[in-house]
Design brief:
This protein is an alpha+beta fold and about 475 residues long. The chain has 19 helices and 9 strands.
């Protein structure tokens, strides 16, 4: 009984000590936020090189807003969506899975790859170092061409029999230019690496022996066996095997194999094993814990923000129109704009035809009308630039509308330039004329309204004494 009581007391003391070392800096909707979590976020977002660095006091509001939005996402149960679970698990596993591979695991995998390769190579006759002289012959060569090539290769072979230097003849006569510069010598080969006709002859030779001429898919060859040996020693190819493991993602395959084996033994699943490993690692490593939490919360933040602000604002045409009507002064221009088109045609008659086709039609429909009327088949009758232009945006508009003395570079094949539209003196006609700006401002307005509602909905308590110790404790 005393032992059990002592154990509980020790555990409580340990918990109290940890709480003292990492006190709560704030609570959001009753959920505690430790000083270490706040420090991780603050330091990451205010590191060297960050342009708009914040003081701890300035960062508090940003951090609280972040936490409130994540809480809203949790209340909306966005963390239960299968798409969220899948994406989060994939990211989390990218952080955790590599920790399951040790240097010994990689060495064992490299040894396995070496043994498999060694058995395959040595079982097929080992490695050969060969040189060859090739006279290319097209597979569709005529009988006359075949006979001529055969005469040439026979003369090469006869010269070799009389003592001619193989490397010298290869350099001068071989059509395999990549090996000819090396006296015809090829890199070490193993079975099933080159064409069968070549390998069958090469593997039948003795060291130093020269083959009779033979025909392959490429033409006539004469081959010399320079050397023969078993597969390379492990230490000489270890670096290449390690590079192979990395390039083929075999580290991850090692993890998969291990998880499957352990799952069978423990009557569990690889996913459950990764869950347990994550808990183990994050209990020891705050940086990893907060990195994973940051991604978890970041996914939630993106989804809730998209639903509540970003996507909502972009699709809310009535809201955009109303916001623009209420804030027209924000979008006034210091200089006039031309709302219309600059276009280029092949024939003079199309200048007026273009104007007639879009006159009186909504500006947003002009592009479709012009495309279907003039460019709906393989022949493009016109070239068009549509938009809201200020001086300097378009040479044709500058010259024809703003009467600026500029040189207009002609469009090849479309020698006649023209414009159609209207000049807006100092303000847009409607929000569509400045849509990108209105959407951005409307999103900001929705964001502020949302944050205000969240601050009314959720209770936030800041521990100012703990906040004052951020980045100032041992």
């Amino acid at each position: 009984m005393k032992t059990a009581t002592l154990l509980v007391a020790m555990l409580l003391c340990g918990s109290m000590a940890y709480a003292q070392n990492d006190p709560v800096v704030m609570t959001v909707n009753g959920a505690p936020v430790s000083r270490s979590e706040f420090e991780y976020s603050y330091n990451k977002n205010n590191s060297e090189g960050v342009i708009d660095k914040k003081t701890v006091g300035e960062y508090v509001d940003l951090f609280v807003n972040y936490k409130l939005k994540v809480q809203a996402a949790l209340d909306a149960r966005l963390d239960t969506m299968s798409s969220f679970k899948k994406e989060f698990r994939e990211y989390r596993d990218q952080q955790v899975r590599p920790t399951l591979v040790t240097d010994a695991d990689v060495e064992a995998k490299a040894r396995d790859i070496y043994r498999e390769t060694q058995q395959r190579v040595d079982g097929g006759g080992g490695l050969l170092k060969t040189s060859h002289i090739l006279l290319l012959l097209d597979q569709n060569a005529t009988k006359t061409q075949q006979n001529a090539a055969k005469v040439r290769i026979d003369s090469v072979y006869n010269a070799l029999k009389k003592g001619a230097d193989f490397a010298d003849l290869a350099r001068r006569l071989s059509d395999d230019k990549s090996s000819a510069v090396n006296g015809g010598q090829l890199p070490w080969i193993e079975r099933n690496q080159l064409v069968k006709a070549y390998e069958d002859v090469a593997y039948a030779l003795k060291k130093g022996e020269i083959s009779k001429p033979f025909l392959s898919e490429y033409g006539y060859h004469v081959v010399k066996l320079d050397d023969k040996q078993p597969f390379f020693p492990y230490d000489s190819v270890k670096t290449s095997i390690y590079q192979f493991i990395e390039s083929r993602g075999l580290r991850d395959a090692i993890v998969t194999d291990r998880l499957q084996e352990e799952a069978k033994v423990g009557n569990t699943t690889p996913e459950q094993l990764l869950d347990a490993k994550t808990e183990e690692l994050t209990a020891k490593d705050d940086a990893l814990k907060y990195l994973i939490k940051e991604y978890h919360d970041g996914l939630l933040l993106y989804e809730i923000s998209n639903r509540t602000v970003w996507d909502k604002a972009a699709k809310d045409e009535a809201g955009l129109s109303a916001y623009f009507a209420k804030n027209k002064k924000k979008y006034r221009w210091e200089e006039p704009r031309f709302k219309g088109i600059a276009y280029h045609v092949k024939t003079a008659s199309d200048v007026d035809a273009v104007k007639r086709s879009i006159k009186g039609k909504p500006f947003a429909e002009w592009a479709d009308i012009l495309r279907t009327t003039f460019n709906n088949d393989s022949v493009l009758r016109i070239r068009v630039e549509k938009g809201i232009f200020k001086k300097g945006d378009n040479a044709v508009v500058d010259k024809e509308v703003f009467k600026v003395p500029v040189t207009v570079k002609p469009v090849e094949g479309y020698p006649i330039d023209a414009t159609f539209g209207k000049v807006l003196k100092n303000k847009p006609e409607d929000y569509q004329d400045v849509r990108a700006l209105v959407v951005a401002d409307y999103q900001d307005a929705l964001e502020k309204q949302w944050v205000e509602s969240l601050r009314k909905k959720y209770t936030v308590v800041i521990n100012k004494e703990v906040l004052a110790t951020v980045n100032k404790h041992q």
